[in-house]
Amino acid sequence: MEFTYSKYRFLLELLKHKKYEFASYSNYKAISKPVILRHDIDNSLTKALEIAKIENEFHVKSTYFVLLSTDFYNIFSKSCNAIIKEIINLGHEIGLHFDEQRYIINSENELERYVEYEKKILEGVIERSVEAVSMHRPSKWILENNIQFRSLINTYGAEFFITFKYLSDSRMQWREDVIGIINSERYDKLHILTHPFWYAHDSGNIKSRIKGYINSAKKERYYQLKENITKLEEILELEEVL
């Protein structure tokens, strides 16, 4: 499947055509043929918003997992917070994207303590409860143990990682034929992970996506400076940067 917005629309249409019902991590048990859509926001909130808008066109709700310990965006900034709130207003849920490498963790109790710590921060910022956590680049320890948290649903728990048919587009590569699997209707439960960072209007490969992101960051950084440096254009024009 190409990583374009048109193909993502096709994916949603196909799921609906095959009678899958879009579910959350808390209500799927009441649905006979659920599909859970999960989006890990590793790099770009703007890209995540594009996917959220497309899903809203199809009256689809999904869960967007926000990473607190990232250098790419700041959930406390006005602009980033506005994007997260817009995703919520489009009908979607926000989950915690947790990077275990951020801390020194030697036990499940320590893991839960830090997960709970970040959960409370995220809830305070978005002003609503968070029900699920996804691990950022999960370790073998996370993947091989059915870790359960008292106040959060672990998306890498056995229920969602094994009982459901799990499909992922990590590193801009579907490890299995997602369209073929949906068409086959072999599985009554689907758990689909996408990374909005890889999707765009045009087709491309992983190299072009990364280069495009780096180039667009120049413009973003310019306008960030413009908010903080009076008459920045008198010092440096945007065209000189691009």
CATH overall fold name of the largest domain: TIM Barrel
In total, how many beta strands?
A: 8
The low-pLDDT segments are: none
Name given to the CATH architecture of the largest domain: Alpha-Beta Barrel
Helical content band: 40-55%
CATH top level assignment of the largest domain: Alpha Beta
- Quick check: average pLDDT? 96
Can you write the helix and strand succession as a string?
HEEHEHEHEHEHEHEHHH
Largest sheet: 8 strands, parallel
Describe the structure.
The protein is built from ten helices and eight strands. It is an alpha/beta fold. The chain folds into two domains: 5-204, TIM Barrel (Alpha-Beta Barrel); 206-242. Strands 1, 2, 3, 4, 5, 6, 7 and 8 form an eight-stranded parallel sheet that branches. Strand 2 (34-41), helix 2 and strand 3 form a beta-alpha-beta unit. Helix 2 (45-57) packs parallel to helix 3. The longest helix has 21 residues, at 206-226. The mean pLDDT is 96.
